[in-house]
Amino acid sequence: MRKKASSAVGFLVFLYLGLVGTVVSAQENTDVAWGDPRPQDSSYYAFREKNSIPPFSTKKIQFLIDKRLKTLPDEALTDYDAGIPARDFNTLTAEEKFTYTMIYPEIFSQACAERMFVNDPQKKIFGQLLFVYNGVFWSERQISYMKKNKAQVLTFIRELSGKTNEMGLNYKSAILEMNAWESIPFLIDFYQNNRRDKDILTTLLLLLKKGELSDFKQSKIYHKLYGPDTNYESWMDFSEANEQYIIETAQAYYNKRQGE
C-alpha cells in the first residue's frame, strides 16, 4: 500500500506533540495504551473508524480510482492531490460524486505519529472523531461539492444510514465538514436507536462547538473536552446526564437556528 500525504502532516505532528505534553493534565488519567489498543478495546476502535460504502456505481468509481492510483509516484509526497482527472470527476452523476467523495478523499498524508488509545472507549464520549488519523483528507474540490450540494448529501446520508442501521466515520465527518446543523434531529433519532455509537454524540458536540454558543462554551462539558488544557484525544465518561445534556442542548440549538 502506498504511503499517503498533505499539509495536514505538520498539523498531525503538532497534535501529537500537544497530546504527549498534556494527556495527563487534561484528563488526569494515565489509563491508556500507546501504539495499539488493548485487545478488548480493539473492536470498538475499529467500529469508530469504520466507513460507510455508498452503493452508487461502486465498481465504476473503484475503476477510476484504481486507474489514478497506478499513476501515483512510489514515494510518499507531502500535500499530494491524488484525485481523478477533472474531466472524469465532472462527468460523474450526483450519486457517483457522493460515492467517490465518501470512499476516496483525494489528499494523501504521511502520518507517522504514535497514537494513544483510551481504555474502555465504549464507556467514553470523545471530543473529536478519528478522521484525522486516517492519513487522507478531502480536497477543496470535494469539500466544495459537499457544501454546494448539502441538502442532497444529507439526504443520501440519512437514507443510506437508515437502510444499513450504521453511520460510518466518513458520513459523520461529512456532516461536520458541511456544518450541517440541519441534521441534528436525524442524528438524535439515529442515536436513540443506535446507542452503541457514541461518536454520534461527539458529532452533535462538534456541531454545537461550531455554533459558538455562549452557554455551551461555559459548560463543564465544553471545558472538559475543548478547554485550554485539552487535546485531540480528550474525553469524558459516558453518563445518562451527559447524554441528556448533549441531546437537549443540540435540539435547542437546532430550534434556534430554525427560527432565524
UniProtKB/TrEMBL annotation:
The keyword Signal applies. Keywords: Signal. The keyword Signal applies. Residues 1-26 form the signal peptide. It comes from the Bacteria. This is DUF4835 family protein.
